Amino acid sequence: MTLKEKIINSYPVSVAQNGDSFDVKVLQGRLWQEQLPPLINLVTLDTLKMSRSNMRLTSHKLDYKLKQIGDSGKSPMEFEDWIGVQNGSEKSLDKMLKYCDKDVIGLRKVFWSLLPYAKRLPVRLGLLVNKDRDACVECGSVNVIKWGLYIT
Q1: In sequence order, what are the residues at sequence separation of 6 or more whose Cβ sits closer than 8 angstroms to the Cβ of residue 111?
Q2: Which one of 5, 27, 63, 149 is separated from 73 by 20 to 30 angstroms, measured CA to CA?
Q3: What's the mean pLDDT in 6-29?
Q4: Cα 8–126–101 angle (5° rounding)?
């Protein structure tokens, strides 16, 4: 197994905004192009789907949700910035790195703020909180008592 394969398969859960319709498909396409094995058993938590299925909002965009929880929103990127990135402009690449960092940090905030409103998750909350230990399915607490096959 190559280093790329080990890295990709070491994360059993993916959290993204519109990840099911965009990010996962782009990644699968890239894996195919690089002749790497496809993603298997990847559980996705899509914040777009979480908000759409559990609440009616004016918008379900990440920028809107960030502003609703008191964040300043996404960093602005202009069309020229994207062209600059493709052309290798250092200034555009620096701006893109800051944009991506803010997106990841903002997505984390939005995910945890949406979590209490989610009806069902495709993964135990404990896997998100602490992947190495058994945890409560409802709250993610690792203070659990095992009674046979059930965790209470």
Answers
A1: 15, 45, 47, 50
A2: 27
A3: 85
A4: 50
